[in-house]
């Protein structure tokens, strides 16, 4: 019987019997045919007929507030919708048949007091929406309303849900979405609920964490576009979850794992409990108990071999912990009914190819390798830098570039160490940290470091090759050498260039947040694709330059008109190795770059991590050895350093005289790059 008349406020009522109605209140017009009453111009509530069933109070200025006992003694009211500015704390009192209360688009500032409603209706619908000034939901806000509640609190100005807010209520569905400023749901907000909630929606809020208490009954969880919710509570919390619509795919990884793992282990326990239940109860209860307990123990044991592989260990995170010696205690046997393939958890958004459900480093054999590689790169390059810095020899172009190269490779080592640490820290539950890590400053730092290191290393390497080639090309003209100031200027340009390239993803061109290893693989926009392709081209170009330089050097040195063929083979070998490692290093960059540019991983991200660990840092590990540690030059520096520290004085002396001798020989031979260096060093040796 829905008759709508909304002048100021209309009261709809029905008479159940033909009993005589009360007389029409003053300032109201009653239409006895449609059983409706329209009142206007009144600044207080009229006395309602006893048989009133629905009350609609529309937006109007004359009725400014609902005073005490507004709906007093109206046992049949089932439906109240109101839009007002003020509600007295006892406005709603003793409304046993109320089934729906809507407080919509009002100017109220505090959460209305609803504790005295005491409705006997099931599935009471409470709709408090679009009240921009309601900021806080206090404790016990919903207690005493009804036996079971559907709570719609969306689109309010709620900022905070205080502890015990839902205390004493029996919840079914709780809608909290589109409270744009809501950032806090207290840990104990759902503490003390008599039952439920089974469905929670916190989409489009700023909630940062969900309470873990009182979530056991949840079957459906919605948190779409809740970008701040980066961490879910422990997944054990959601034992009955069947449907989840979340913001981040990684959370679905965790939730899906939970369900998959629970299958077999629970099944074993449930099977046992079933079989003990159906067993004829001829044995005494104590015997049965001990049998039961033993069997469950062994069931747990028998799970161990099943869980020997890595995947399963990961899932053991959600192991249903048995708190006591007796494993059946504390196990929720209600779960037995919900186990089965048909209750597979539905979760959105599903993980994409760039973010599969896996750890940062998913293959176990890569983990130790990553540590070895990163520590090697760090220590070797640190050694080179320290030696160069403490060396008392003259700073030549070569030594300067060596130092730059070592620094770049050191940064790469630092990046790898960072990734390795994050991997160890988040091992087997990365999905839990994925969004915190990938959207955080740490990942930006790692990505910047990685790209900067890689590009600076490539740039410096190219410079070194060009410098060597130039030195040999102009070997006969000593005045035509690359000078230190040229090198410094070129390196400053290099730093600026690499810094820009590394920082672009931070400021929005592409992004480091796409993958767990923090490389710029986001190619959503044209600018980002352009960026990735440019970086790729830079790397390929410099690789080609390096190749050409070394090939030309080789041809020049190999030329019989050049005098120094005895250094040929060694040099050729070294060049070949350098070019080869360079090429290997380029492979993952190409793979990453091309997959990003083509929007499709060429190989799975999981596999590409092998490239990342094994090939990408290859240069960083090999450069310090090829360019410094394995050279005579460096040995001499080290000896001098030790000598200064008072160690190995005899060897140093010996070495020094050897070098002097060698230097004298070399002086008379044509200057190949190494020889040139030894030459200048022997000069400085002579001087020292
Ligand atoms: C929770 O509600 C119960 C009654 O339902 C009450 O006795 C208790 O004091 C409330 N707890 C808090 C902390 O308000
Ligand atoms: C549980 O029992 C069912 C049949 O009742 C069987 O198919 C299943 O393999 C059993 N599971 C375990 C883990 O023992």
From TrEMBL:
User: Topologically, how does it sit relative to the membrane?
Assistant: Multi-pass membrane protein
Pfam families xrefs = 7tm_1
Identify the stretch annotated as signal peptide in this record.
1-18
- GO CC annotation: what is one? plasma membrane
Write out the coiled-coil annotation as residue ranges. none
Q: Where are the annotated segments for Disordered?
A: 277-296
Positions of transmembrane segments: 369-389, 401-425, 445-466, 487-510, 530-554, 575-598, 610-630
MF terms from GO for this chain are: G protein-coupled peptide receptor activity; thyroid-stimulating hormone receptor activity
**Could you tell me where this protein is found in the cell?**
Cell membrane
Name the GO terms of the biological process aspect: adenylate cyclase-activating G protein-coupled receptor signaling pathway; hormone-mediated signaling pathway
Q: Where does the G-protein coupled receptors family 1 profile domain lie?
A: 380-627
**What keyword terms does UniProt attach to this protein?**
Cell membrane, G-protein coupled receptor, Leucine-rich repeat, Membrane, Receptor, Repeat, Signal, Transducer, Transmembrane, Transmembrane helix
Q: What is this protein called?
A: G-protein coupled receptors family 1 profile domain-containing protein
- Lineage, broadest ranks: Eukaryota, Metazoa, Chordata, Craniata, Vertebrata
């Amino acid at each position: 019987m829905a008759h709508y008349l909304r002048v100021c406020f209309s009261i709809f009522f029905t008479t159940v019997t033909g009993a005589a109605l009360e007389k029409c209140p003053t300032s109201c017009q009653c239409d006895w045919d449609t059983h409706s009453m329209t009142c206007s111009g009144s600044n207080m509530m009229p006395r309602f007929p006893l048989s009133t069933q629905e009350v609609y109070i529309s937006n109007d200025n004359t009725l400014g507030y609902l005073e005490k006992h507004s709906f007093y003694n109206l046992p049949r009211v089932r439906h109240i919708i109101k839009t007002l500015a003020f509600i007295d704390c006892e406005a709603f009192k003793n409304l046993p048949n109320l089934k729906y209360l809507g407080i919509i688009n009002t100017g109220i500032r505090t959460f209305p007091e609803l504790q005295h409603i005491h409705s006997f209706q099931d599935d009471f619908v409470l709709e408090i929406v679009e009240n921009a000034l309601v900021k806080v939901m206090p404790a016990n806000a919903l207690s005493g309303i009804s036996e079971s509640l559907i709570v719609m609190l969306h689109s309010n100005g709620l900022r905070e849900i205080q502890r015990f807010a839902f205390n004493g209520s029996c919840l079914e569905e709780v809608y909290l979405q589109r409270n744009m400023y809501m950032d806090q749901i207290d840990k104990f907000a759902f503490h003390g609920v008599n039952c439920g909630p089974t469905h929670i929606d916190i989409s489009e809020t700023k909630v940062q964490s969900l309470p873990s208490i009182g979530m056991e009954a949840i079957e459906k969880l919605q948190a779409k576009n809740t970008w701040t919710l980066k961490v879910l509570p422990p997944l054990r919390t959601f034992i009955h979850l069947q449907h989840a619509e979340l913001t981040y795919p990684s959370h679905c990884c965790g939730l899906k794992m939970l369900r998959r793992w629970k299958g077999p282990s629970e099944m074993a326990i449930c099977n046992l409990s079933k079989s003990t239940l159906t067993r004829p109860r001829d044995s005494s209860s104590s015997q049965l108990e001990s049998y039961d307990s033993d069997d469950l123990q062994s069931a747990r044991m028998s799970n161990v071999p099943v869980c020997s592989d890595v995947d399963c260990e990961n899932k053991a995170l959600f192991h249903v912990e048995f708190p006591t010696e007796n494993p059946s205690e504390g196990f929720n046997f209600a779960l037995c009914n919900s186990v089965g393939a048909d209750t597979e958890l539905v979760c959105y958004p599903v993980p994409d190819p760039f973010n599969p459900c896996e750890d940062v480093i998913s293959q176990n054999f890569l983990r130790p390798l990553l540590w070895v590689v990163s520590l090697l790169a760090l220590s070797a390059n640190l050694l080179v830098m320290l030696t160069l810095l403490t060396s008392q020899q003259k700073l030549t172009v070569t030594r300067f570039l060596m130092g730059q190269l070592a620094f770049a490779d050191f940064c790469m080592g630092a990046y790898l160490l960072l990734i390795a640490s994050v991997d160890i820290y988040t091992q087997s539950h990365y999905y839990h940290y994925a969004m915190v890590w990938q959207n955080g400053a740490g990942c930006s730092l790692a990505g910047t470091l990685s790209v900067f290191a890689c590009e600076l290393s490539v740039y410096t390497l190219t410079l070194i090759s060009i410098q060597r080639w130039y030195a040999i090309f102009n070997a006969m003209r000593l005045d035509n050498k690359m000078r230190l100031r040229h090198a410094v200027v070129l390196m400053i340009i290099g730093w600026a260039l690499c810094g820009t390239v590394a920082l672009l993803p931070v400021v929005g061109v592409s992004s480091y947040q796409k993958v767990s290893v923090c490389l710029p693989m986001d190619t959503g926009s044209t600018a980002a694709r352009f960026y990735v392709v440019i970086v790729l081209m830079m790397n390929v170009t410099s690789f080609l330059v390096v190749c050409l330089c070394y090939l030309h050097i080789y041809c020049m040195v190999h030329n019989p008109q050049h005098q120094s063929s005895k250094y040929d083979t060694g040099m050729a070998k070294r060049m070949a190795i350098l070019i080869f490692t360079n090429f290997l290093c380029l492979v993952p960059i190409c793979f990453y770059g091309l997959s990003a540019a083509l929007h499709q991983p060429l190989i799975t991200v999981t596999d590409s991590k092998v490239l990342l660990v094994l090939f990408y840092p290859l240069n960083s590990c090999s450069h310090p050895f090829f360019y410094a540690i394995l050279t005579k030059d460096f040995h001499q520096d080290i000896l001098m350093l030790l000598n200064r520290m008072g160690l190995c004085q005899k060897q140093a002396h010996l070495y020094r005289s050897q070098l002097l001798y060698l230097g004298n020989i070399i002086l008379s031979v044509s200057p190949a790059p190494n020889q040139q260096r030894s030459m200048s060093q022997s000069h400085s040796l002579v001087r020292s």
